[in-house]
Design brief:
Keywords: Secreted, Signal. With 423 residues, this protein is mainly beta. The protein has a single domain, classed as TolB, C-terminal domain (Neuraminidase). The chain is built from two helices and 28 strands. The strands form eight sheets. It has a four-stranded antiparallel sheet, with no helix packed on it. The chain is globular.
Amino acid sequence: MTMRKNALLSFLSYALANAVKFTPLDDKPGLIDNGTFGPAVEVVHLFEDQPPIGIAVGDDGRAFVTFNRGDLATNPSTLAEIVNSTAETPFPSLEFNTPPGGLVNTSSGRTLGSSDSNHFINVQSAVFDARGRLWAIDTGRPVLTGGDNPPAVPGGPKLVGFDLTQNETTPFKTITFPENVLPALGYLNDIRFDLSANLTASGEGVAYIADSGAHGIIVIDLGTGESWRHLDQIRSVSPVSQFLPSLFGSPTYQASALNPAFHWETVAGGGIDGFAISADGKFLYFTPIASRELYRVETAPLLVKPSDDPFSVIRAINSVQFLGQMGGGADGFETDDTGTIYLSSPEHNSINTYNPKTGLVELFVRDPMIAWPDTLSVANDGFLYFTVNQLWLSPLYQNGTDKRVKPFALLRVPIQGGPVRLG
């Protein structure tokens, strides 16, 4: 027993005598992440009040921004034109942005979105077409206190077009949707246009809309206003179950006031969100917001109405192609006329690119200022513009509490390509 004790004491003495005493060093490892990569990021506009969602920069330099809203008093405009470095003005007017009956209807005892088709309720996206016309998509679903969206009713969700080449402020067209095309929990998220005359009998071209709420793609004949639905609730347009992103290094569960749980699958749908058309118009590239997977679908089978040919549903689904993982979740997508697809990457404070020729996803630009890149817009001045809005710190993700820090921003980076305007 004594020998054991002596051996133990001897070992402890040896260990103590040879223990390393660590002290802080002035030197650093050879590689340290400074959070930046690629071209310089420029701040071109600051939003001192409301966080921006959509951005559209036209060929004439006019720029329009959308704001999600739920309260007319604190956010009177949901579509606005940027007029200088810190100011925006409601477009086409404050009156058009102010539905007389308010943003919601509670007459049934339930809170529903307004059915007003003559005023904006909650505009998500604004995009220019090849004729210089500005189109705005209104979800019809305002943001309630705490971050949730009430169900929509027909009339409220709509596509509204303005002919800016004539400096018009009255819509030349308003298109609404039947419930079999856009269900009550549908959410009109983003839109792309192809005005090629040979696509439909009307000769006026089509619009493709990503429905992130009910998970699918909506196609519109811009001549007749008729719409139809494809890829309804298939896996590629739907959220990945238990998706968990990390934002600014923190795993982020999506939890709103009415749904204080892990539920990326339910808030605003979680479905198809990133959305872009190829430079030749033959493909739509997309991803759900609750996913890290990149897909594309051929546009040709989407042009066939299921009511005319029920087998078109199968052909459209069979034309979906899985292009691989993106290395992170994405929000907005955009295309330039070189064929490059730009992919926002909120998890990495970056924007990546996808090259259809090589199949590679590559880092394009990264900067700590890119705090949730939302919508991207390629302009003809040699820049890619994008909004940053700290979306993961909004009530939608933070149990109803707003943790965002003002101001928000419109940023831009130089690129080689120009905008894609089909038709």
